[in-house]
Amino acid sequence: MEEDDGRYWLIFSELEGQEALGESGGSVVSVSEAALSELQVLLDDGDRDGVELWDRLVARNLPSSSIVRWIAAGMDSPVSRASLLASRVYLSALLSASAPIYTLFNPLAFLSLLRSLRRSLKIQPGGSESFPAAESSRETNHRKNASRKRGGGGASTSHRFGGRDTVDQDMSIEELLLQVLEFLELVLDKVRLDTVPDGVKSLVETMAGILKNPSAPHHRLSDSCFRILYGLVSRPQHGDQSQAAIEVMRVLVPMVFLPLKSPTRSAVLGFLTHQLAGMARENGEIRKTLLYLPRYLAMKAPDKSEPRASAVDAIVEILRIMESEDQVAFVEYVNKMAQGKAQLRFLAVDLILSLLTTLPNPLGVDSPDNYCADGTCTWWGIRCLQALFQRCSDVSAVIRARALTNLAHAIGSLSENINNHPLLQSFITSRYEKFNNLLKKRCLDEKAAVRKATLLLVTKYTLMTGQPIDEIILKTIGRACSDPLISIRKAAASALSEAYRKFKDSRVIKEWLHAVPPLIMDNETSIQEECENLFLELVLNWISAVGNAKIICDPPNLESVYSQDVLALLRGTCDFEVAPYVKKICASLGKKRKLKNSIATSLQNIITISESIWTKNSMRIEKWTAPPGAWFILSEISPFVSEAINWKFLHHHWELLDQACSMDMNGSVDKLEPTSVMWAGDRVSLLQTISNVSRELPSKPAAELGHNLLNRIQNFNMHFTEVDAHVKALTTLCKRKATNNHEGDALVLKWVGQVLFKALETLEYYIGEVSRDKDDGNLRTPLGNKKKGTTASPSLSQAVVAVFTIGSMVLVCPSADLKGAIPKLHAIIIPPDTDQKRKELTGLTVAMKEIAPSLYIQSWVTMGKICLVDDKLAKRYIPLFVQELERTESAALRNNIMISMTDFCVRYTALVDCYIPNITNSLRDPCEIVRRQTFILLSRLVQRDYVKWKGVLFRRFLLTLVDESEKIRHLADHLFGSIIKVKAPLLAYNSFIEAIFVLNDCRSHSGHCESHGNSPTSSQLFSIRGSDEKSRAQRMRIYVSLLKQMAPEQLLATSAKLCAEILAAVPDGLLNIDDAAGQSVLQDALRILACKEMRLQHTRGGEPAEAEEEAAADGGAGAAQAAKGRAVTQASKKNLIQHAVPIFIELKRLLESKNSPLTGSLMECLCVLLKDYKSEIEDILVADRQLQKELVYDMHKYDAARAKSRLAGADGAAGERVASAVADAAARATVRSVLKEAKRDAPTPPLSAMSLPKVRSAAAGGGATGADRPRELLESLRKRQSFDSDDDNN
């Protein structure tokens, strides 16, 4: 009892002191923690339940409100622990049985309680967080000892609500806060918050603050907060339940936008979908509130991608708990959102995909009745697909890309249910033309993300539709396989392969073969692997399955056994453009042991069945050819599946082909029938196959084969491709059948010497025949002047083949003795008037270039092969090759010499490096084949680092971007867009300014005169000089291609260099614009600065988060790219203000002084550059007010002209009148704005202060005479436009 008296004395002494201060007008006394702890003990006494406290208050004439004021002062304490202790005391007082609730509970005290809760969430002044994980044991023991000394902490009573000690000095703030929240939950059962103004709102916001606090634990605290919120909504005594529900949802919505894995978000979403949803089923008003929650979330969804994804997920989760009619109503709302602002359209596109893939039965196929009672269609999914289809043509590229992607995913997801297929096919086929037109347009979209999304849609579209893919779309996808972006190349290959699987017709097969196999040369390893896997699946495995299938008895023709598609596939693999890639793919698959024996078996079956059907139909065997491509593929896979190839099969077809070849012995090498050409190709592939499996050959057949090959080589009557194949096959056969390498080399050297002797005899015979004919004065008609129907003589054709054979043997046997061959070849390729000594060596006195061009060309080719194995000879002859390349008129010879020069570049890099400018001249060769061959060969050398991008090489390659040949332009786009961009990312930036001067052939700039080289002819050849529209368009296309390779910071630096090195060079006198080339350079620079590729992508006035979405479309580095873009944009603005604008002002003054026609181009460029800064033009052009006014006027004038043209084109004559009125109104408004700007700078002086009063008085009839007035002044005044200045004064 004495202990309680002490507690009461401590409490009442502070209360009485507070009352005394209140009566004297003083401030509220501070509340001690000791007094609060003692009061808590009294309130927690379970036996008396606080009754004695209130009785003693009455006995001391202290009102109950005094203790409320005292506790409220404690709750307002800045110390979190003291504030929470006071809050707990206040709630305990309200929970005591005999407490005067209506006196204790008042708005001020309740708001102090809420402030105490919010204060506990703040960081402590010392820097520690509000909720320490644990207190140190030393501090805990210190508090316990202090409690014992005070004498009040030893007694412990049972806590009514948690069984805790009443003495809680060692409790953390987290525990105190949790206890306060538990008491608050109980208090809400006894009080009414409708009497407290904004009480519900304040309490809800406080609970939300606790939930959002990152330092607060998320288990018991969050559960207590949710129970309090649930109690607010569920109990009517706190006011309107629907309003309470609205307040709760309003404060919880921001937490719904947290990341998907956030525990706070999960807890909030669970509260909305379970507790509030359960309450909504019993309360109609709360149900209406919950129904509008998804719409509210949609309107409040942020622009950024992650919060928007969280919003979409939350909306779908809430929709799951709703009735089907409520879901359909929200779907209709989403469809309307898809027609709204950009932010809402973007969100609607994401929502539609989630609705289609999450909600049940979107197409109504599982419902017995597809219509509601009011007759509306329940196929809400179709309407969603229609909305997505419309957004695929949105003006915003980000929305277009997302809509295309989501439409593809939606079709793929819905197609998993086979019952949806009829409706999906109906949806696509009903708008088949629109779909095709959409895909055609989007495949060529300027945004990479849109192109990639379109390819994904094509893949899904192909799976669902049963109609063949459009030809234009097919070719567009094929071109996308060479897109600069890796992701688009992958998507294009996937889309084209899906079309291949679905429609195995000749169109798709041909496009696939020309688009996918070339990816084996891609720089990206993953694309190479994907290319190999696709070729194995779609080509080799298909051939294996078809070739090993069972055959019907006595088929009438080959098409009845194998479909046209299989035959088209085989024929396409041996196409001259596809064959090199097929070879590389087969070699790579073989090295990885992915080739199976069944593929070789199938190809042998196809060839055997083809021959069998031919012979059964009693046709001549010499007219038979195997299905094109069968022998070719077999030869490429034979090194890796040699055990699956039957020697009897090879021997039989060799004899068959050899027999057919003997029938063509008397024919010309250059004039073969189509069947003979096909036989020759098959013989080449057969020989390659035999050489690849030569280890498996028996000894006797191998010897017979070798003797046969040698005889055929010595006859010199085969086609060049056959000669190479025979030489390689015989070499391989000798080496593989020899017991050791030395023996094999000796065998090869022996037969090479024998064939070489025979070849020189054939060549000498022809040279002697030509010399005799000249001596007799009876030369044969030159090959180039032969009449139609004539053929070359047998000796000439044999001589040509003999020379070619020498070159082939040199490559396989470099040690062969060529002492007799080199002088004869030298005599053929060197004109007689330049080398008199050759008459004594060879007796040749005529120019073979005129008599036998084919022999002349082939001699250069063979000499090139000899130089490859003899470095001393190469040093002597390489200059001759360069000389002949420049002067010969034969396109075939130029092409062959170009091939030889590239081989020299690999073998003798240092020797050829000085001739690179001569070699690159072939890029402007009049023959397209030579240009294309030069481009391909030089590109390969550059990729392999045999040639560096330095000097004239890069500048001359630029001309290929505007070549007359579409194939060369396509190759150049791929080279600059994919290869150079990766291999030399700074090349376009470093060479850009120099390229402008070179393309214009401008030598009037003192700093760029050396860029053109020493040869005026070459500079003119590799320039596009001229001011005509075609030349400007070609130069601009080159500039744009280079700009597309640059990063944003490089574009900014290029803009600065253009201003400093070209624009500023004109006022400085470094660039002479009186010269036509100098004018073209300046005009090109202005056009480049104004083009859209040069302008950095701003977000000023753009779509929401567009820059972020476009950057994120290419990978995980999107955020960094977006931040980098914003930094570059700020730097661009700074560069424009500090550097570009002063240069433009100075240049404008100079051009105006010279009355230059380039003034208009300069003004147009400035209008474009300043278009994004209309509101800041006054600050930017502070140095030239006149230019500022002119620019404002010009920009409004151009806008008015565009409005006039649009309206005139839409409404004809009536539209023209309306457009004229609009334009005139815009012009008047512009003039008024300009005048207002002028007035803002300096007020208009009164008429009496005008500087020319005589002009006005003379116009009125007095003053000076007409002779005193300058005539030009009067004329200018007559021409001056009058403005309605009264409007300006309004």
Q: What is the number of strand segments?
A: 0
How far apart are the first and last residues' alpha carbons, in Å? 89 Å
Which strand-content bin applies to the residues?
under 5%
Tally of separate helices:
60
Mean pLDDT: 77
Task: Bin the helical content.
Answer: 55-70%
Radius of gyration: 46 Å
Structural class: mainly alpha
- Main sheet: strands, sense, barrel: none
Q: Can you tell me the overall shape?
A: elongated
Low-confidence stretches: 124-167, 371-377, 663-672, 779-792, 1098-1116, 1210-1223, 1230-1290
Main location: nucleus
Organism: Spirodela intermedia (Intermediate duckweed)
Protein name: Condensin complex subunit 1 C-terminal domain-containing protein
Domain Condensin complex subunit 1 C-terminal: 893-1036
Features:
mainly alpha; 1290 residues; disordered C terminus; elongated
Notes on the protein architecture:
The protein has 1290 residues and is mainly α. Helix 12 (241-256) runs parallel beside helix 14 (284-300). Mean pLDDT is 77; it is low at 124-167, 371-377, 663-672, 779-792, 1098-1116, 1210-1223 and 1230-1290.
